[in-house]
Design goal:
- The chain is an alpha+beta fold.
- 26% of the residues lie in helices and 29% in strands.
- It has an eight-stranded antiparallel beta sheet.
- Helix 6 packs across helix 7 and helix 7 packs antiparallel against helix 8.
């Protein structure tokens, strides 16, 4: 992990859909959420999307988009939705805790509580948590300065609306650098909703540094890499050619009408084809590679079910690239593919499941009995999950509730 890259180490969510009381501790640079359909993987992904949208488009729009509290709040529950995130701005920085409570009244959603605290290190002594932003219902105070403490100036503020997030508003002022750092971190999250169909369009000419969330600007990113980072594009295309038989080249071509075409050439043929006629898997793999080999990656990258439209044998290589990318960007990935999971270490894998009340819980695989020992003996995590060795999140359960494995003869693979 780069020293200047923020990283989330803890997440707690209350009253958000099936996440009635959900907690993740000691989150690693690469975190993969595995589980059967309906286990809550997409809801975890949407937590990050919702928080990001609260900062980018505003609380009310993010709230409306998800069906308001009728659909957002855990069924049968009352009170606010709560998010707690603990993170470090870099590897040596103090731990910062961000608490956000969202509630609603007759006028709509509002920020009931918003708090920022941190633990300052004074030599070998751990200081007590210091609250440097404290807001409730649109009013509160913030401590200015780069290293806020009791000796710094505390300023009282009143926001123009209770819908506004204090971190998002005050984080635009240079006088609050710690608040600004969190705002910059969250607004920079990349949460991918890649679709192969979206990559097949013809956008307007113009280089763009980063892939859009849907992937519809893939030709623009290829144009940018070609013009500014030729060696990086060559590396991406070499990897792609190793994965896709006979693929020879990819080119972003400008047209006279100002549109941009993505052309893909196979080795046996003289003429390239337009991207709209190319394989979905080819385009999706290309999109993922441009994201993972971004010269200036976002601090957090979220990818939902990368296995869709890709051949299973390509997934271990993609998982390895996600591991490598986690050195410079924190990776959050949902999956239900054993092929992808086989590459992971036990501490990188969280298994999602529903408890007896129907609420989503998660358990890290290295906390399950025997799993770490089985992996140390040469077994692969994905195989162990598919064969029923995990004590939660098993995708195969018979009508009597008893687990059974895919193979009765071979419980593990060495």
């Amino acid at each position: 992990m780069k020293r200047d890259t923020p990283r989330i180490t803890y997440l707690k969510v209350k009253n958000y859909r099936v996440l009635e009381n959900f907690e993740l501790k000691d989150i690693k640079p690469l975190t993969v959420f595995l589980g059967p359909n309906g286990s809550g993987k997409s809801t975890i992904f949407d937590v990050f999307a919702f928080l990001s949208e609260c900062f980018s488009i505003g609380l009310r729009k993010a709230w409306d988009k998800r069906g308001r509290f009728k659909e957002l709040r855990t069924r049968g529950k009352s009170g606010p939705i709560e998010f707690i995130i603990k993170y470090r701005e870099n590897l040596k920085s103090p731990l910062i805790t961000y608490l956000l409570n969202i509630n609603e009244n007759d006028q709509g959603p509002f920020v009931e509580k918003e708090i920022l605290t941190w633990n300052r290190h004074l030599g070998k002594v751990q200081s007590r948590p210091f609250k440097f932003l404290d807001f409730a219902n649109g009013e509160g105070s913030v401590v200015s300065g780069d290293m806020p403490d009791n000796e710094a100036t505390r300023v009282s503020e009143k926001l123009s609306s209770k819908e506004l997030l204090a971190v998002n508003t005050l984080g635009q002022f240079a006088s609050h650098p710690r608040v600004t750092a969190l705002r910059t971190f969250i607004t920079g999250w990349y949460l991918s909703y890649l679709s192969a169909d979206n990559t097949k369009g013809n956008p307007e000419v113009g280089p763009q540094e980063r892939l859009s969330l849907s992937g519809d600007n893939l030709p623009n990113v290829i144009q940018y890499l070609s013009e500014q980072h030729g060696e990086r594009l060559d590396k991406i295309l070499k990897i792609l050619a190793d994965r896709i038989p006979k693929l020879e080249s990819v080119e972003a071509k400008s047209l006279e009408n100002g549109m941009l075409l993505l052309k893909i050439k196979d080795a046996p043929f003289d003429q390239p084809i337009l991207s709209k006629y190319a394989s979905d898997g080819t385009l999706k793999m290309l999109a993922y590679l441009t994201l993972l080999y971004d010269p200036n990656p976002p601090a957090l990258i979220g990818i939902e079910e990368p296995e869709n439209q890709l051949h299973p044998r390509l997934l271990p290589e993609l998982a390895e690239e996600c591991k490598n990318a986690s050195a410079s960007a924190q990776m959050m990935i949902t999956s239900h593919s054993p092929f992808f999971v086989n590459v992971l270490n036990p501490e990188e894998l969280w298994v999602m499941y529903r408890n007896e009340k129907g609420y989503t819980q998660a358990r890290r695989s290295d906390e399950m009995p025997t799993i770490s020992d089985l992996v140390a003996s040469g077994n692969l995590l994905g195989n162990l999950w598919a064969e029923g060795h995990f004590d939660v999140g098993d995708p195969l359960i018979n009508e009597g509730g008893r687990k059974f494995s895919i193979s009765n003869k071979n419980k593990t693979h060495k």
